[in-house]
Amino acid sequence: MNRTLVIVKPDGVERSLVGEIISRFEKKGLKIVAGRFETIPKELAEKHYFEHAGKSFYDELVTFITRSPAFVCVLEGPEDTWKVVRTMMGPTNPIDAQPGTIRGDLGLEIGENLVHGSDSNESAAREIEVFFPGI
Fold first, then answer.
1. Residue ranges of the domains in the chain?
2. 5 Cβ contact partners less than 8 Å away, ≥ 6 residues apart
3. What is the pLDDT along the chain (135 residues), one digit of tens a residue?
4. How many CB atoms lie within 10 A of CB 110?
């Protein structure tokens, strides 16, 4: 089995969409193997988003992900589970997301796009270790 990290971001929690979003992954056949609600500390957010440090949107990204609780979880499924999750999420900009995807059905703007999913097996391993060390 293969694992990936998913975060229902603060806007998704604030809009009470955690159940809707996670149920889509479960209906697809992915299994939650770890999960929790937490207000992500700034230091953890910076570690998570390190590859974006120095980019124009970095500070806004960190401020957003730390503003209120998020639901952080590890999903397990077949090889390249991260690809399954990313396909189900849709493009980062909800305007470009197809109906049937999470962002296409539920998202409104690029800055608050409801959900994060790892973008490779390598990123998944690193991100899982950031949020769930030793799992």
1. 2-131
2. 72, 73, 74, 75, 116, 117, 118, 124, 127, 128, 131
3. 899 999 999 999 999 999 999 999 999 999 999 999 999 999 999 999 998 999 999 999 999 999 999 999 999 999 999 999 999 999 999 999 999 999 999 999 988 999 999 999 999 999 999 999 999
4. 14
CA-angle at 121, arms to 39 and 3, nearest 5°: 60
- Cα separation, 58 vs 76, whole angstroms: 29
Angle, helices 81-89 vs 121-131, to 10°: value is 90
Structure tokens at 51: 């590859």
Task: Kindly list the catalytic residues.
Answer: 116
SS3 64: helix
d(CA 101, CA 37): 23
Which tens digit of pLDDT belongs to each residue from 68-95? 999 999 999 999 999 999 999 999 999 9
What CATH number is given for 2-131 in this structure?
Answer: 3.30.70.141
